[in-house]
Design a protein that fits this description.
This protein is α/β, with parallel strands linked by helices. The chain is 41% helix and 12% strand.
């Protein structure tokens, strides 16, 4: 080791990296648009990093390495990919003349090229954050192709802050990887561990030479069940830290394990030559007495403050957990259970929320205060006794606040019977829907939203500020709906959408129209890359006072004789993309939302809407990381969807949509939703999902996406035709729909129109091929 110092008494695993006012988003998108160059982007990034360091120091993280160096331009997994040079062969040569992967190469992997799809994207454990999936095979070459983590450390140090550099750990990186296109069918990326470790070792050596006292290696894959046998993972962990622990001049190593308990891998890490081990002591609980004995000699970084949700910490309970660890004779410091990148910056800025609600909440800055308070408790319990007592009093008062419990809502839930969760047999519904809709083979549709232009956002902002009246705003939105309907008619789509111009966000829009929710002004969190969302706050029992979407859908249907989809967000996704109350089972909360949606569906049917889509893109997202816990989750999540939709008539076609999930893992649950049509992401993974659908014998309508909307590239007609050709080989034509991967909200109209035109042309080409094949 080079520099040695005790691990800080108080620290975070990570901090929001987009900037308090989304400065990073604006800089990155400016760079993509050619409005700023790489030097200006670098300057903006450095200012965000220093701003974070200053703020955390102000809040009490003043020790060496207390401030995590978790900044990323796009994604922490992409950072690791570019550090070790794991570029898929399909991208060709991306290294510059110095052999490095510069910022242009970095974004190429994230966003793709005209010829190449970007890296696949999926969820980061049980969060709403998306990471880019590494593609690794026997042919992948590894070398140090970026030293950005070293440069970021050196910049902070030169400005007075010794941060703690961060890297996704080698075992997690390989466990999260998929086999490259060139790899044999039985290839396991973990088999490349010995080739990856020298690059990690070189990075540690360089960080030590730069003066880093500590480095954080993030290994969350160790708390989740994997397809790889546990014995192989144990061997990989032991080998990894044997090699990295032996690096001369290295920083001290903290291995962090957020999102749950280590279980059988705790002894392996306890015996590894590392100086500190983070345990998730919030979600994963405190290790057993026997496990605590194994941790002697290491600093235990106890994640007792929830980094993943926004509720005030029960400081008394957390203090008791810390006392248990300390009583075992361990060296204990305090941290968050996960990075706080999953929560907004500062609740004190949310002045539109009631003072009572704000008192229940802790955003990233407040979590720092909680960590510092608990660290003070470890040093001297009397010093934090008042703060702990105050937190306990607030938590106790919350349960009695108005709106938290509504008797009429609870009575309606209690009266539910099994019949409320079931529709008629699919064969009955299919016949009724064919008669009502008369759709052609391979019906074309989109997922819901169309591009949200600057004009739309400006109109919404002006309406919110009172610059234009509600009637004027409604007229502007109807003009946009008319434009979207006319465009779809011109493109010759079979089932239309109204484009959702009136919706700021697919969850927030409903949160603003349901009781039991509140929304923030500055509560942005990163979803992926430059994409940010403002999760709503679900704090009380949920009710629907009046129809939410009906007038918009009814107006859109009046503009066309083709079917118009009513568009709703499903109960699981509303929960997954909100900060949800922690004082009752999630299943109860999901059913409350489900009943509100059930009432909305009834009103849409009454207004003449024959197709209703209830989106559940987050169904996979909340799936517990341990298989033993997944059955109970899937039961309540599937049932809440069925409760929402089971009141629909046989002739009403219920659609759902899922995106960026490992569908094979939850194919039974997707089937259990009993939707008439399910649209799913498939373009970026090049139709891998159809194999799962075929193997399962999925028997209802399905639309595997043929247009990846998370990239600006336009798929050509030939590309879409090829994807559809793959789909029809595995799924019966009578079941297939043709659609993009997801909504089009984040795309521009030029690329959208070209892509959708190619989608329709390709569909007609495949229909013609099928007709010829059928006649022969």
């Amino acid at each position: 080791m080079s520099n040695t110092s005790a691990f800080p008494a108080a620290s975070l695993l990570g901090y929001p990296r987009i900037g308090r006012r989304r400065e990073l988003k604006k800089a990155i998108e400016g760079f993509w648009a050619g409005k700023i160059d790489a030097t200006e982007l670098d300057a903006a990034a450095k200012e965000i990093q220093l701003g974070t360091a200053r703020r955390l120091a102000e809040l009490g993280l003043n020790e060496v390495a207390a401030i995590p160096g978790t900044f990323s331009y796009y994604d922490q997994v992409l950072d690791a990919i570019t550090h070790i040079g794991a570029v898929p062969a399909r991208f060709g040569e991306l290294r510059n003349a110095d052999g490095q992967l510069d910022i242009n190469a970095y974004f190429t992997l994230a966003r793709g090229t005209v010829e190449q799809q970007p890296l696949e994207m999926t969820k980061w454990f049980d969060t709403n954050y998306h990471y880019l999936v590494p593609e690794i095979g026997p042919e992948t070459s590894f070398s140090l192709t970026s030293t950005r983590v070293v440069e970021q450390f050196e910049y902070a140090l030169a400005n007075g802050f010794e941060t703690r550099p961060y890297l996704v750990g080698p075992v997690t990186l390989l466990l999260l990887s998929k086999a490259s296109d060139e790899a044999p069918a039985d290839f396991n990326p973990l088999s490349r561990l010995e080739d990856v470790l020298p690059v990690y070792a070189e990075l540690l050596s360089r960080l030590g030479a730069a003066g880093a006292s500590w480095v954080q290696l993030d290994e969350p894959a160790l708390v989740a069940d994997q397809d790889v046998p546990v014995t192989e993972i144990q061997a990989a962990v032991a080998r990894s830290y044997e090699v990295l622990g032996a690096v001369a001049g290295r920083p001290q190593i903290l291995v962090s394990t957020p999102f749950g308990a280590l279980r059988e891998l705790l002894p392996t890490l306890a015996g590894a030559p590392i100086e500190a081990l983070h345990i998730d002591a919030f979600k994963g609980a405190v290790p057993s007495a026997a496990e605590l004995v194994l941790l002697a000699g290491k600093t235990v970084v106890a994640g007792v403050v929830d980094g993943h949700n926004i509720w005030l910490n029960d400081l008394a309970e957390s203090a008791a957990r810390l006392d248990t660890l300390k009583a075992a004779g361990l060296t204990v410091t305090v941290s968050t259970s996960t990075s706080t990148q999953h929560v907004p910056h500062d609740v004190t800025e949310e002045t539109a929320l009631s003072e009572e609600l704000r008192s229940w909440l802790a955003f990233a800055d407040q979590k720092v205060t909680e960590v510092v308070t608990l660290a003070a408790h470890l040093a001297d319990p009397a010093s934090s006794a008042a703060a702990i007592a105050q937190a306990s009093a607030i938590i106790a008062s919350r349960s009695e606040a108005a709106g938290v419990k509504r008797p009429e809502v609870r009575a309606r839930l209690a009266a539910l019977t099994p019949a409320d969760f079931n529709r008629s047999a699919y064969e009955v519904r299919e016949a009724a829907q064919q008669a009502a809709l008369a759709l052609p083979p391979l019906p074309t549709t989109t997922i819901g939203s169309f591009p949200q232009t600057g004009e739309i956002r400006s109109a919404r902002a002006r309406a919110n500020k009172g610059v234009i009246t509600s009637d004027e705003y409604t007229t502007l939105m109807k003009d946009e709906i008319k434009r979207v309907v006319e465009l779809q008619e011109e493109l010759d789509f079979d089932v239309l959408v109204h484009g959702e111009p009136e919706r700021n966000d697919m969850v927030q829009y409903f949160a603003e129209n349901l009781e039991g929710f509140d929304v923030t002004v500055h509560g942005w969190v990163q979803s992926y890359g430059s994409r940010c969302t403002r999760p709503s706050i679900l704090w009380g029992d949920v009710t629907r006072e009046k129809a939410i979407t009906v007038s918009w859908a009814e107006y859109a249907q009046s503009l066309t004789s083709k079917p118009m989809k009513g568009m709703l967000t499903g109960p699981v996704t509303i929960l997954a993309w909100s900060f949800v109350r922690d004082d009752q089972p999630l299943g109860d909360t999901a059913n409350q939302v489900g009943l509100a949606l059930r009432d909305e569906i009834a009103d849409l049917e009454a207004a003449g809407i024959k197709i209703i889509q209830v989106d559940e893109p987050a169904l996979r997202e909340l799936l517990p990381l341990r298989r033993a816990d997944q059955g109970a989750y899937l039961d309540w999540s599937v049932n809440s969807f069925r409760l929402s939709t089971a009141g629909a008539a046989d002739a009403t076609q219920i659609h759902t949509h899922l995106c960026y999930s490992e569908f094979g893992v939850i194919i039974d649950a997707i089937d259990g939703l009993d939707a008439d049509v399910t649209s799913i992401e498939a373009a970026r993974s090049r139709m891998d999902v159809v194999n799962d659908l075929e193997a399962h014998g999925f028997g209802r309508g399905v639309g595997p996406g043929v247009y990846d909307i998370h990239s600006p590239r336009v798929p050509g007609q030939a590309e879409v035709t090829e994807l559809l050709g793959t789909a029809v080989k595995h799924v019966p034509v009578r079941q297939l729909w043709v659609n993009p991967d997801c909504g089009l909200k984040t795309r521009g109209y030029v690329e959208t129109e070209e892509s959708l035109r190619n989608l329709v042309k390709a569909t007609k080409e495949v229909r013609a091929q099928l007709a010829v094949s059928h006649t022969h």
